[in-house]
Amino acid sequence: MDTVTKDEFEKQYCKNSGMSKEEYDQHSITLPCQCEADDCQGWASVTNKPLFIKIHNELYGSR
Ligand SMILES: [Zn+2]
To answer: What distances in angstroms separate CA 60 from CA 19, 22, 37, one per listed residue?
Structure first.
């Protein structure tokens, strides 16, 4: 598993989805991720809404 910085993760994510960083920031935030996925880089892009953030932190947040 390769870990990257939050910045690198966001850059990569935007590139893969053809979004600018501004667009990304309007809809999403990047949170630490501790899921078991093989390709997980230690970060996850989460919809910027309280419910989504809460669910992510409960399932994959650091504990
Ligand atoms: Zn993950």
So the answer is: 24, 25, 11
Amino acid at 32: P
Residues with CB under 5 Å of ion ligand 1 are: 33, 35, 40
20 CA from centroid of ligand 1 (Å): 22
What is the value of pTM for the model shown? 0.87
- Cα(43) to centroid of ligand 1, in Å? 6
59 Cα: distance to centroid of ligand 1 (angstroms): 10
Count CB-CB contacts under 10 A for residue 32. Answer: 13
Question: pLDDT tens digit string along 1-57?
Answer: 567 999 999 999 999 999 999 999 999 999 999 999 998 999 999 999 999 999 999
